[in-house]
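Example 3.2
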Amino acid sequence: MCRKSHRFLKVLYHLYVEQGIPLIDCLEIMSKKNDSSPLSKAALYIEGELRLGNRLSNAMKTCPYITFDSISVSFVDFSEKTGNLSETLTFLKERCERREKAASKVFEASLYPLFVIVLSLFVSGLMIFYADSVLGESFINTSLYKTLFCDLLFLFIFCFLMFFYLKNNLGDSPLYEAFLSVGFLIRYGVNASLAVGLGANILGQDSRAGQLFIKARSRMENGIEMTKAFCPERKNRGLLDKEILEAFYYAQKSGGKNDVFERIAAQLGKKNEKKTKLLLSLVEPAFTGGTGIFLIILMANFLMPVMNGLNLM
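Structure, written as tokens:
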């Protein structure tokens, strides 16, 4: 979901839910705020569609000024059928805030590899300048540049792998969002199998977890109990499936089945929070260690030949 759609949903939530202004009037207020902004243009377009008798979800889907993701459109579509637009806008606003919070954590974590790379480039340039000033151009040969390039390449690869790992683990938790969304939809009257199908879309239908939700939906449509529908064949059970089954087990032990998905989401949320705190606490020492290894390699492959050239060894 892009920032523009985040902004649109938040403003709409503020006007419609917090201030209790009718939907058409909310869109009219938003459209007159700033004629040149995408938010105003989108509000004007959607307002026009509603006045023509079209549904809000269809107007969001066809809006040319802001791209609303399919999940948000599906939520609004369900809310129009169940009559709980206020609760849905509240949920979508909170979803936007969760995604923005996750993105900010990834950004904060990415500052470490960026700082390490900039610092390493600065140190490398300083060493080349020093060697060139003291020993002359004859000392800075192709072999030395090749050594320096290999050292920097090691550091870049290390930083890239660390950033990729942090991005995947500090970003959105699709499994948490899927269970939370399914639980919300079921609580407000959406058919359980339809809700599970939306959960598959959140996870990605080609993903392993998405396939699990798709199979669960098929089982539920065939009359299998909701909790049993998520129990795959023993031969296909993997680590992810075990986590889901364990979450179902504890959710059932702690309460009824009506809010099982929300209970699972709460458990997964606590687990993700602990994991995030642990990763953030390890970011600085990890990059400090990687930088230390880089400096050791640089010392061995670059600084020692410089010292030899100065007859210090």
